[in-house]
Write a structure and sequence with these properties.
heterodimer, A: Glutaredoxin, Serine Threonine Protein Phosphatase 5, Tetratricopeptide repeat, two-stranded antiparallel ribbon, 7 strands, 8% strand, globular, B: mainly alpha, 8 helices, elongated
């Protein structure tokens, strides 16, 4: 009985801690699953919606600090950030600072959606290029987690700062980062400009190939290249993380857990590693271990949707329906355009015998799968 | 044997053989020429049909590009040209419907898609789009009829199951809606996983 009471108390504490973490933790971290600060970023190319000219981040980074911003017209935060970037662009107009806005409207962009984006871009009168990421190729290369997300890339093509989302403080942090990177001011405690871990060139090359192969679902080849990347640089965490993702895709949750554990050991600040580890435990039905890892992931980054989502699924497995609903509602608020979040939310509503809410959540999921033409 | 045959008889036999040969040659020549003519006319028809299909495809490709670029008037002109020569082309009706909706002519779009669904009764995409428009306009019974006709062709059509769920939910049948939605989600998620 005492043990049970202790377990209940511990569970309550963990839930409270998670809620605190969700409320208090900063929102400006871990924008990308596939790249971390210190790593070279994939190139962004496309046609500028306004001028029709070809745009390439590779050319821009040769002489400029480049801000790459991922946005969508359905996200109000994106529109807020675009407006602020317009002001930032003017503020640094005498400095070598360039901005590219990458529209990530959805996997398939309908004619209506394209018209909506073009209209919005014209209305905002943006002084920097906007490209559309058809088929979400750039989005997948970066592994964008939240929309909007921003990448600040230095003249070596290295990611220096990547805030996810757009909270009240992100605007100031972007300005601080630019000023520090341009040498206009000294880095302070508040300034977030990460040096990160710079892997060896060979490891970066193998990892880049593996990323492309993973996006094409060539998992066997990707795993070979990831092994080569790890051999070339044993301290490089990202290949372990990607190995974990691939093993999860292949339903090898034990191997996935090992890979994520290694990634977390090498980079304890990688929210994706902790969240992946939790997900791998969840796939094995080890809900207590899953909960522990997911709760830890949320202390690193409270807005990391996969962690919030999997925590909801974990709580649902544990029969804690109300907590599961809270967590999945939070995941929905963080990423309203992910149909799977609505699908899982529907399942939890059914668990709670709330058929009206379940029908609504399922309907939303399907609306996202089948957008209006 | 011939040497024993009288001369006149031999001449008669030769004459008969020669005549038969001539007749055979004439018949053969006539048949060959007739065959060539028939073959030529068949080829001409095939070629014309192929040219028509090729032109329809070219026009459709161009009309889709124009629709996507927002040039609906030109797109509608090309789609009408396709339908003049091929009034059973489901894609032409479908894109014409889209162009008409984009220009605000939803009533015309419904008429176009209704005609298309009659002319090409197996065209699922066209019927689903029409069902969306009918649903948005509150014509739920007609929408349900269309959805059921799509599900009769393909019971695992995700978007049709989704629309059926929407209709049931609208009618207050949440349990029925959930059942339809779950089926729709099952096929849709499996399809997106494959991709």
């Amino acid at each position: 009985m005492k043990l049970k009471a202790l377990h209940t108390r511990m569970s309550v504490c963990l839930v409270v801690l998670t809620i605190l973490a969700l409320t208090l933790a900063p929102y400006s971290t871990a924008a990308f699953r596939n790249i971390r600060e210190g790593m070279l970023v994939p190139s962004v190319t496309g046609v500028d919606l306004d001028t029709g000219k070809q745009v390439s981040s590779d050319i821009m980074v040769q002489k400029n600090l480049v801000i790459i911003m991922f946005w969508a017209s359905w996200s109000q935060r994106s529109i807020d950030e675009l407006k602020d970037l317009k002001e930032i662009y003017r503020r640094f107009s005498d400095q070598p600072v360039k901005i590219i806005a990458v529209n990530v409207e959805g996997q398939t962009v309908t004619a209506a959606a394209k018209t909506r984006v073009e209209k919005l871009v014209a209305e905002l009168d943006l002084p920097f290029p906007v490209v559309m990421d058809q088929g979400l190729e750039i989005f997948s290369q970066y592994g964008v987690i939240a929309v909007p997300s921003t990448a600040i890339v230095d003249t070596t093509g290295t990611l220096r700062y990547g805030p996810a989302g757009y909270s009240l403080t992100t605007h100031d942090l972007i300005i601080d980062s630019i000023e520090v990177l341009m040498g206009l001011k000294q880095a302070s405690v508040e300034t977030i400009v990460f040096e990160g871990y710079r892997p060896t060139n060979d490891a970066s090359r193998y990892y880049g190939m593996a990323l492309n192969q993973t996006n094409r679902r060539q998992y066997k080849r990707a795993l070979t290249n990831l092994d080569a990347a790890i051999e070339a640089d044993a301290k490089f965490a990202s290949p372990n993380l990607l190995r974990g993702d691939i093993f999860l895709h292949l339903d090898s949750s034990v191997a996935a857990a090992e890979a994520f554990a290694k990634a977390a050991e090498l980079d304890s600040g990688s929210v994706a590693a902790w969240a992946g580890w939790g997900q791998a435990f969840l796939a094995q039905g080890m809900t207590d271990s899953a909960y522990e890892k997911l709760a830890h992931a949320l202390t690193v980054d409270a807005s990391y949707t996969p962690a919030v989502l999997n925590l909801g699924l974990c709580l649902s497995e544990q029969g804690k329906v109300d907590d599961a609903r809270d967590s999945l509602n939070k995941a929905r608020d963080l990423n309203q355009m992910d149909p799977m979040v609505h699908y899982y939310l529907g399942q939890v509503h059914i668990q709670a015998n709330d058929t009206a809410a379940a029908a609504e959540a399922y309907k939303t999921a399907l609306t996202l799968f089948y957008p209006a033409r | 044997m011939c040497s024993g045959m009288p001369r006149t008889k031999r001449i008669q036999t030769l004459m008969i053989t020669a005549r038969s040969l001539i007749c055979f040659c004439v018949v053969a020549l006539v048949s060959i020429s007739a065959g060539t003519v028939i073959g030529q006319s068949g080829d001409t028809e095939k070629k014309a049909r192929r040219a028509k299909i090729k032109e329809s495809r070219r026009l459709l490709k161009s009309a889709i590009a124009k629709t996507e670029a927002g040039d609906y008037t030109s797109a509608l002109g090309e789609l009408d040209s396709i339908l003049t020569v091929d009034d059973t082309n489901p894609d032409a009706y479908y894109y014409k419907g889209i162009a008409q909706v984009s220009t605000g002519d939803t009533t015309d779009a419904i008429a176009t898609l209704t005609l298309g669904s009659e002319k090409a009764p197996l065209a699922r995409r066209l019927k689903i789009y029409l069902a969306h428009l009918l649903l948005a306009g509150g014509q739920n019974d007609q929408a349900l009829e269309l959805i059921n006709s799509v599900l009769a062709i393909k019971p695992g059509e995700g978007e049709a199951l989704y629309l059926k769920g929407v209709l049931l939910q609208k009618a207050g049948d949440n349990t029925g809606a959930i059942e339809a939605y779950e089926k729709a989600l099952e096929v849709t998620i499996a399809k997106s996983d494959k991709r």
